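Sample pair:
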Amino acid sequence: MTERPTPSWVRDLLGEDATLVDVLGGGTSRATVLVEVPPAHRRVVARHDGGHGPLSGTAFTLEREAAAVAAARRAGAPVAAVVATAADGRTYAVEQLPGRPDHAGEAI
């Protein structure tokens, strides 16, 4: 297996020692990755808008998404805690929750 370098936007958000574990998704708008963050070696899920997708420059920003996730958590919804948000609003990270996605019912 070829090791992939940790993107600079991950290091900018979570520190130089943050390490890419896996790429979870990446469409034309946003990348989603799993990252390990020392010193506790906790894992977080980070999302980034590279600025070139169809949602870039619209009202549907990752800053807005992070705010919605944080508001849902404050309201008692079982969602991950936001652990970091970039000053420019294009990147944020949440704690990794246990479990796996349930893809039942999705088209293959």
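Helices lie at 8-14, 62-74.
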